[in-house]
Amino acid sequence: MDPLASVFPRRQGERYDWRIYPLALSGAFSNTATRLASFIVKGGSNVYGSYPDIDELFPLQADELDPKKRAAILEKMQQLVNEKAINAPIWELAFLNGIGPRVGESSLGKIPGFPYTAPFEDITLKGT
Questions:
Q1: What is d(CA 18, CA 3) in angstroms, rounded to the nearest whole number?
Q2: CA triple 110-116-121, angle to 5 deg
């Protein structure tokens, strides 16, 4: 069984084209159009391959003045991205946390999903 099949679906016997799978992350605030421009549409800062059918829709949405029509074009682009499995939403917090020998209770993991040491009131030191 192919371990990547659930993340990167493909047809039987088809090889992966890794140039089309962006491996970039961004925490910048933005909207749909700017995310597509950065990660999906040809010429974007984090684009490593593209699809012409998606690329040709991008200037159409940029020129569209009617918000509903523009939203429909952007939704179509998102649908194509999803169908073609261009992105795989994988997220791993890679925070390194160290605890010294004098720490009694570090508070790591006390708040589920919070990667830092908190609450600070619960941190204790070992007696000397």
A1: 15
A2: 60
How many C-beta atoms lie closer than 10 Å to residue 31's C-beta? 9
Rounded distance between C-alpha atoms, residue 86 and residue 84, angstroms: 5
Residue from 67, 83, 56 nearest 32 by CA: 67
Calpha distance 31→62 (Å, rounded)? 13
pTM: 0.51
Average pLDDT over the chain, rounded to an integer: 78
Q: How far is the C-alpha of 42 from the C-alpha of 48, rounded, in Å? A: 8
Tokens of 101: 């020998």
Higher pLDDT, 61 or 19: 61
Bridge partners of 117?
108
Could you tell me the two tokens for 76?
């179509």
> Is 84 exposed, middle or buried, given 0-12, 13-18 or 19+ CB atoms closer than 10 A?
middle
